[in-house]
Amino acid sequence: MKLVLAFMLGCLPMLAGAQEKLPRDVARFVENAQMCEHFAGEWDDNDKARQREITQAIEQSCGQAQKQWQRLSAKYAGQPALKKLIAEHANDAVRSFRK
Q: What is each CA distance from 99 to 32, 53, 56, 83, in whole angstroms?
């Protein structure tokens, strides 16, 4: 178990390096899209205060990701690898967000 944990921790710098190779605007989009998807799945109708927090987080992250998705899709249309990455992260929550 310790060996698995050590291996996973050893791989973190490689993952961070892979993320750094993305253009900054694409990395921000990926982060916003992931947060959008996360908060879209966090619906809790029992706690009104928490629900307001979730709604605000959804509006922020999904709204930003949707704007970024449209702009980045056009900007990187001629770069297949980035275009594919952008399309993969344009999840249902990003695509269907309506304010």
A: 16, 15, 11, 26
**List of residues 6+ apart from 20 with CB closer than 8 A:** 27
**C-alpha gyration radius of the chain:** 16
> Which tokens go with 98?
């309506």
Compute the CA torsion angle 37, 39, 45, 46 (nearest 10 deg).
140
What pTM value is reported for the model?
A: 0.74
* Cα–Cα distance, 21 to 41 (Å, whole number): 29
Q: pLDDT tens digit string along 52-98?
A: 999 999 999 999 999 999 999 999 999 999 999 999 999 999 999 88
80-89 vs 48-75: helix crossing angle, rounded to 10: 160
